[in-house]
Each structure stands twice: as C-alpha cells, then as structure tokens.
Amino acid sequence: xxxxxxxxxxxxxxxxxxxxxxxREAFFAELQKKDYGxxxxxDIANEAGINRKTFYTYxxxxxxxxxxxxxxxxxxxxxxxxxxxxxxxTFSARDFFDKFNQLVRDDFEVYHxxxxxxxxxxxLGKVQxxxxxxxxxxxxxxxxxHHELARLTLMSQYxxxxxxxxxxxxxxxPGDISLDEFTDLAGSLTLYGLNRTVIIPSKK
Length: 204
Hints:
Elements: H1 5-31, H2 41-48, H3 52-58, H4 62-81, H5 93-106, H6 108-116, H7 120-139, H8 146-172, H9 179-192
Helix pairs in contact: 1-2, 4-5, 4-7, 5-9, 7-8
C-alpha cells in the first residue's frame, strides 16, 4: 500500500520523537554515571543505540541538548506564572503553590539529576528572571517613579530568589519535609514573611 504525504509526515514525526526520547533518556542515564562535563556525544549515542550522525541531526552538542531540556521545563511554568497577579484580590497563593508543587512533582527526577550534575542553579536562574519579568510587567506601566521601580525590582528579585532557593535546597536535601509541607511553607513565607511563619522561642 502506498503511503500518502500525511502518512509519511506522521511517520517522520514519530521517528523524530522516538529518536529524541532515546537521546534524552541516554543523557539522563549518563548523568547518573559521570559528571556532566565528562559526558560525550559518543557516550550518549552508545547508550541510546544510535550513531553520532543521528545525534547531530537534532543537536549541535551536549550543551544544546541540555538547553532544550531547560527550555521545556521553563515553558511548563509559563502558564502558571502568568497567573501571578499580585494586585488581584482573588489571587490565591495556596492555589498557586499547589500547582507549582505539581509541576515540580511531575519532573522531580529531572530536577534531581540536574542538581546532582550542578546544572540546577543555571535552570533556576532562568526561572527567576521569568518570574521577575512577569511581576514587573504588572506594575511598571503604572509607575513612572524610577526610585519606586527600583524598589519593586529589588522586592521581586527577593521573592523570586527566595522561593527558588528553597526549591533548590529542598531538591538537594528534602530531609523529612514533604512536598506538601514545602508548598505550605513557601506560600506562608511569601504572604506573611518570617515573623508569622516561624515560631522563634524567646530568650529567658
């Protein structure tokens, strides 16, 4: 039976998806064996059962593969961060962090591997920049005072960096803190600050 153009296109698409999935899984497998900087294209190709030419069909190098993974993770956060409207009286920090919680849970193994290979901070730096841009886009059109904009920039950096630093620390060493408890803690700190979140015993 002759294939139509549509059939051929679908076949090509599925082959691309399969190849890139094999490459990604091989990359993650290699991350569990050696340092990121020591992983070669040959290592990934051998692990994936492909040749180097196939790898180069999709990526310029290992850094290009990692960049694609980071971009996909960040893109998953964009719809959630677009709801981060601090001016809205109906904005629910609990709902926001519940959804944030689920996104982290969905790709936890990837985050854990990126942390192990020292690349998580790079990814979270990009996420921080995205959060700050979204927060500032909500207010900068209404504020013409440069001093006040500078203050808001610092505050948005503080909020974004604090949350993402918590994420990085928790992924590296969660201890006995569950993801649900982490979500509650992050939400409380964001809304109420340290004084209303942490009970500090008074000195006698």
